[in-house]
Amino acid sequence: MRLRDFHYDLPSDLIAQRPLPDRGASRLLALDPAGDGRRDLCFRDLPSLLRPGDLLVFNNTRVMRARLFGCKDTGGRVEILIERVLEAGEALAQIRASKSLKPGRWIDLDGGSRLVVRQREGDLYRLGLIEGSFPELMSKQGHIPLPPYIQRPDDASDDARYQTVYARHSGAVAAPTAGLHFDEAMLVHLREMGVGFAEVTLHVGAGTFQPVRVDDLDRHEMHAEWIDVNDDVCRRVHSARAAGGRIVAVGTTSVRSLESAAAEGELVPFRGDSRLFIRPGYRFRVVDALITNFHLPESTLLMLVSAFAGHRPVMDAYRHAVDARYRFFSYGDAMFLSRNEDGSPDDSSSR
């Protein structure tokens, strides 16, 4: 398939700029390619789509206050997005500036700290902090890194609403947005009805927003993201499967985590970077159902969803969502997708 096969027209006014006051008030488009087709629901209807014995797999990453602002030593303004903290005083980052920065140049942040450019590493810069640690710096001076399609500065409300209620391990520059719809009351209700929970960690990187720049998808190089699928997750998945339950991933990041850990055929503990690129033709090994938000046109996330539920059903569902005026992207509405069993052999993934 080609990049253009994943295009759809989206009016800009359907891109959600702020979250709804109530996490669970979002709409939910349920898609079952092999069953009852498509249904327009509310997220609070999610329990009706689940059954006792199902296992929900959440991504417990926490969004860092990763956006920083400052000036180059030449006086020009810069915007920094910390991609990954390497150690207390070093980090990899994207830098938006009028010109590329050379090793040895320094940056004075608006809050008073100073950074030095160590070296260029692909699209990223290795930065050193002259004094202190990056976690402390971001905590005091950083901003919540709202996605580029949200056309406003972050504010105090984003501190809580651009995090899931179960976020625990800091390291992401974007939220695993399917999880933003869950509140504590929903989690309690699902536990009481016999739905199981498991948690993986995938630190979402800024590469998730990078456009695919080639029409031939075989030439696309997937960005790397750090994943942790531990032994407890594997035991819970195997136990749920043995008892006849479904594995329901909350978000595409949970899908990539589980499928990366099962890349050799069997789900086993996995800890490290993954470049798994899931697109139509991929045969899923672990995940049976998926809760996800709506994704950007021509994005790798839309390709993953199309691989999971079928290209035509997904693209038809997106056109329906536009016509029905669903809210799109990070602060938007959600979908519940059942896996399309009419898959083809896995010839399209790479770690």
Compact summary:
α6 (300-309) packs across α7. Helix content is 19%, strand content 28%. It starts with 26 loop residues before the first strand and ends in a 13-residue tail after the last strand.
Notes on the structure:
Mean pLDDT is about 95; it is low at about 345-350. The protein has a nine-stranded mixed β-sheet with strand order 2-1-17-16-14-3-12-13-15. Strands 5-6-7-10-9-8 form a six-stranded antiparallel β-barrel. A hairpin with a 2-residue loop joins strand 6 (about 75-85) and strand 7 (about 90-95). By secondary structure, the chain is an alpha/beta fold. The protein is built from seven helices and 17 strands. Pathway: tRNA modification; tRNA-queuosine biosynthesis.
Strand content range: 25-35%
What is the number of beta strands? 17
> What is the oligomeric state here?
single chain
Write down the secondary-structure element order: EEEEEEEEEEHHEHEEHEHEEHHE
Write down the domain tally: 2
What is the C-alpha radius of gyration, as a whole number of Å? 20 Å
Q: What is the global morphology?
A: globular
Name the helicity range. Answer: 10-25%
Number of helices: 7
CATH architecture classification of the largest domain: 3-Layer(aba) Sandwich
CATH class of the largest domain: Alpha Beta
Q: What are the segments in which pLDDT stays under 50 over at least 5 consecutive residues?
A: 343-351
Taking all residues together, what is the mean pLDDT?
94
CATH superfamily of the largest domain: QueA-like
- For the biggest β-sheet, the strand order reads 2-1-17-16-14-3-12-13-15
CATH topology category name of the largest domain:
QueA-like
Distance between the termini: 20 Å
Structural class from helices and strands? alpha/beta
Instruction: Report the biggest beta sheet as strand number plus sense, adding barrel if it closes.
Output: 9 strands, mixed
